[in-house]
Amino acid sequence: MNRSGEIHPRCCVRVTPVYTCLALFAAHTTDPATAPDPDRTLIMKHLAFRVDRDNFSSAQNRLRKHNIAFTVEDHTVSHSIYFQDPSGYRLEITTWEI
């Protein structure tokens, strides 16, 4: 997102309506390698974002709208949405407002 609030044309996930944008860029190849096996490689396994309850609900609606599969987990003290980015990395959106 630039200073005037416009979304970069390659931005795939807009986390909140105004302030946060996660930019995911396609590989510069027609034959990209798949994500490493997280059980056999020392890598970041997933990236988590904390949001308020309204944005948590909004995220579920946006994922459904774009046909992105996700799961919701109740951790007793928080709720989380889990889904994968186009390269197979796990993303989490969590709220402590339950």
Contiguous uncertain segments of 5+ residues: 1-11
Radius of gyration: 15 Å
Strand percentage lies at: 25-35%
Q: What is the string of helix and strand elements?
A: EEEHEEE
**Strand order across the largest sheet:** 3-6-5-4
Helical run tally? 1
Q: Count the strands? A: 6
Q: Characterize the main sheet.
A: 4 strands, mixed
N-to-C terminal Cα separation, in Å? 30 Å
Q: Which percent range fits the helix content?
A: 10-25%
Question: Could you explain the architecture of this structure?
Answer:
- By secondary structure, this protein is an alpha+beta fold.
- 13% of the residues lie in helices and 26% in strands.
- It has a 4-stranded mixed β-sheet with strand order 3-6-5-4.
- The longest helix has 13 residues, at 53-65.
- The radius of gyration is 15 Å and the shape is globular.
- It starts with 12 loop residues before the first strand and ends with a strand.
- Mean pLDDT is 77; it is low at 1-11.
